[in-house]
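Schema walk-through. Below, the input block comes first and the output block second. Nothing else is stored per chain. Lengths vary across the set, and this one has 572 residues.
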Amino acid sequence: MNRRAPGRLGIAPLAILLAAAACAGGTPIEAGSRVPAGRLVTATASDPRTFNPVLVTDQTSNLALADVFEGLLRTDPVTTRPEPVLAESWEWSADGRDCTFRLRDGVRWHDGVPFTSDDVAFTFEAIFDERFPNSARFSLTVDGQPIRVSTPDARTVRFSMPRPFAPFLAAVEVPILPRHVLGPSLADGSFGRRWGIDAKPAELVGTGPFRMKSYVPAQWIEYERNPDYWRRDAEGQPLPRVAGKTILIVPEQNAQSLRFLSGQTSWYNPRPEEIADLRDRADALGIRVDEIGADPGNLFVAFNRNPRHYGGDASGRGATDPRLRWFTDKRFLGALSHAIDKQGMIETIFYGFGAPATAYIAEANPLYHDPDIPEPTYDLALAGRLLGEAGYVDRDGDGWREDESGNRVEFSLATNAGNFLRERMCSILREDWTALGLKVNFRPQSFQSLVERLQSTFDWDAILIGFTGSIEPNNGANFLRSSGNLHLWNPRQSSPATPWEAEIDRLLDEGSRELDPAKRAVAYRRIQEILHEEMPFLETVRQKLAVAASRRLVDFRPTVWGLAAPERIALR
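--- output ---
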């Protein structure tokens, strides 16, 4: 599952990651032909869940829409600073509570209708409409109040906040929607059903460099170049520089690898075990392989603490299912944290291309990363002793531990099927946790099924899953806030279920008030300490990422935060 994942839309609210921060990047390939020609082809592991940008929570949907829609700004993945897109400039009021954007002149929607400030106002109306839960709302709410939007004229938008709000420029990078297309559906309450995956591609009207041409479930998404795109390169040549794009839907990683090796895709994120071989064969295959840096996201095991699934309250009182008591017992979770063989995973699964993950915010984000979070030692003997001291012992001699009420400690562990790296990680977790006398049922599932369980049915116990990273910590508010829709362990709380979740809510507000980044870091580091202490999820490994790409690509610049200026990519 973004935390906002590679691509432009991936810099906004946290999203569920399918594949994947110092801003290391690949060296640009020298510029070539300026004539738009050829087709870029990539692959993703699952079908999108929606084509409505406001309703996106998963990375595949995010990826599917990244070149169709645009925001007022986007984050440059090389400099990590905001750069203008649909807005050409912005200006702050003296008190820091208002930000006024001047919109770019001459931008048109794919259907030819002019883009205006009214479209911006409509987009934020949709985001803040309580009838349609979405991730963006959590990073755009200030002290419980929505940011107010006014439109003095067709090219001016003013955002007004109850107080200075430090994350504003990062939070406002949401895709803008056309009022003339979607306005009636917001008015009549059908917005949540508009632009589902059954929508005709021609209905998806954006301002981006590509228009969706066709979508065949489980096969591909095809795009054609927007001939009226507003952006030009430094020499005044029209962008984008290719005639079209295709995203192949290939759930199984071996199949993705074969597609790349056979020249069917333009670039590929190789698994760790493939990197050395691809480098050895680079000349023969006509490719380049670049290491771009450590994953800025998270790959963790989360535990379900949702009383709506188990019964009882968040502390386990009154629960009819003992799993809620186990998953809220820090003694139980602390023992499991000592039974995660991160170094073994790095050596046997990541082939050395990884590092133990400790803090919630990655080392790739050095300003906010907390380097003082301690790494739990891998020690099965210690883990077993801690379980015993907590009352989890084999009471009947059957080889499995029971809790103090005599319930056998048994739970399921899931991850997305077809992702062999994660499946192997789960196998190691299961092996070690089973050695402790815990009965762990490992059940890989389709990514769509996992998302459904996480967001709708809440029918899961433990899950190994990934979230994308974000340069701005507040963009993870949909994950961190107790009311967040992606607050996995107990989402959408009407009020914080625990004092520590209430403290995280408070710290998010505190961090957003402070304009000095160094002072903001104090709040975000405390959040990382709380997550480490309370353990709603256990960190595993951060992969060192690489990108393999055809040497035919021109101006292809991958970074851990996404592709730099993807509209400039060309094929020689």
